[in-house]
Amino acid sequence: MLLMQMVRDYIEVLKPRESGLLTFIGICSAVIAGGGNLSLRTLLFVGFAILVASAGANGLTNYLDRDVDARLNRTRHRALPSRRIYPPEKVLPLTIGLVIIGLVLAWLLHPYAFIADLVGTAAAGIGRKKVTCVFPQGALAGCAPVLIGWFAVKPALDWEIGLLCLLIVVWLPLHVWSVMIFYRDDYINAGLKFFPMSVAAKDAIRIMSGFCVVLYAVSMALYFTGGFTWFYLILANLLGIVMVYASLRLLISGASRDAWRLYKLSAFPYLGLIFLTMCLDIWLF
Q1: Residue (of 132, 117, 131) closest to 57 by Cα position
Q2: Lowest-pLDDT range, 129-133, 146-150, 165-169?
Q3: Are residues 178 and 145 located together in one domain of the fold?
Q4: Are residue 175 and residue 279 in the same domain, yes or no?
Q5: Beta-carbon neighbour count of residue 238 at 10 Å?
Q6: Residue-number span of the structural domain to which 65 is assigned
Q7: pLDDT digits (tens, 9 = 90+) for 54-64
Q8: How confident is the model at residue 133 (pLDDT cuts 50, 70, 90)?
Q9: pTM for the full model?
Q10: Does 134 share its domain with 236?
Q11: In sequence order, which residues have a C-beta less than 8 Å from that of residue 41 and are 6 or more positions away?
C-alpha cells in the first residue's frame, strides 16, 4: 500500500490529466498536418513524445510552484506542498529525466519539434506566477504540443498552424483565469496579486468575455483556412455558442459557480472536442 501511494504521488506531480489533454491535442495537430494520412506507428510515436515532454514540463512546474501551492487551500494537499514527497528535490530526477527524454524524442521527430519542445519547456519554468500567469510563458508552453505534433509531420509554417496556436493562446486565459476567479479570495489571501486578482472581478470577467468572442472567431477562421466541411462548421459553431453563453452567463451573474462552470467547460469539453472535430472532419469527409 505504501508503495502504491508513493507511485500515485509521483504520478500526481506529473499532472496526468493536463498532460493527457496536451498529448491529445498534439496528436490531433499531427493528424491535421498530415491530412489524416498517418500510420499508427507515427501517431503512437508522436503521442509518446508529447506525453513524455508534457509530463516532464508539468512535473517541473509543480516543483517550482510548490511554495505557492502550499499557501493556497486549493493546492496545499498536493504531493509536494503537503510533503508526501519530501524533500521535494526527490522528484527532480524523474521530471528532469522526462524533460531530457522528451527533447531527444522531439529531435527524432524533427529539429523544429525539438525547438518547440525546448521553448515550451523553458517558458513553463520561467516567470512563474507573474503578471498574468498566462502571457507570454503560458501561451508558449501551451502551443508547444501542437507545434511538436505539426512539425513532426509537416515541418513548415502556414496559416492553419498559426490559427491552431492562436486558438490555444486565446483559450488559455479563459481556462486559467476562470478558475482563479472561482478561487479569487484564496489567491489573494496567499499574497498572489497578478491578473486577474489585480483588478476587480467584474473587470476581469469583461476581459474574459472578449477572449471568448475572439476564440469563437478563431474557430470559424479555421473553417476557411483548413478546408473543413459542414461537419466542422456545425460542431465548431455549437461549441463556440456554448462557450459564449457560459461566458455571458458569468458576465451577467458574476457568480463564482459560473466561473467554475466555464473552467470545467473549457478543458476537454471545448478544447478536446474542437480538436477531435477537426480530425473527424478530415477522416470522414
Answers
A1: 117
A2: 129-133
A3: no
A4: yes
A5: 12
A6: 1-156
A7: 999 999 999 99
A8: low
A9: 0.95
A10: no
A11: none
